[in-house]
Amino acid sequence: MDTVHFNKLKQSVAEDNNCASWNSWREQNPQSLDLKGVDLANSKLCKANLANVDLSEADFSGSDLSGANLQGANLTQANFRGAYLIGANLQQVLAVEANVSNASLTRSQLSSSNFQGAILGKSNLESATCINSNFRDTNLTGGSLRRGDFSHSDFSNAILVDVYMVGCKLANANFTNANLQKSDLGAADFSNTNLNGANLQDTSTMKTNFTGATPAQ
Question: Strand runs (DSSP E) across 40-132, as ranges?
Answer without folding.
Answer: 53-54
